[in-house]
Specification:
The chain is mostly helical. It is built from five helices and two strands; from the N terminus they run ββααααα. About 6% of the residues have low confidence.
């Protein structure tokens, strides 16, 4: 994923594949997915760390949907959470604050 990529002032992450796109883009040029009106992540607002944690714990993979990373959710489900390894890594990342939404913003 592109989480370590530095975003320019006029860029954001695709809500599906996580690729860097222009903020005003209606569609990602890499995956072709139409972007939400408020930017990637589906709602434009900052996402809650506690909601992401609950989704990760009890509805494995839905935490990716919540933060706007649909492509990662599908990959998570197809691999069984990376045989459980991604699930543990995601739990730790959410708890320590390093888990990001589709726009690269930290959860609040």
């Amino acid at each position: 994923m592109s989480e370590s990529t530095k975003l320019g002032a006029d860029e954001r992450f695709c809500s599906s594949c996580g690729g860097v796109i222009k903020k005003e883009a209606e569609m990602c040029v890499k995956c072709g997915v139409r972007q939400g009106s408020g930017g990637g992540g589906g709602g434009g607002g900052r996402k809650s760390k506690s909601t992401a944690l609950i989704l990760c714990l009890f509805l494995c993979g839905f935490h990716y949907i919540y933060v706007g990373k649909t492509g990662m959710a599908i990959l998570f489900w197809l691999t069984g959470g990376g045989c459980g390894i991604w699930w543990i890594i995601d739990l730790i990342a959410i708890l320590n604050g390093s888990f990001k939404d589709a726009d690269g913003k930290s959860l609040v």
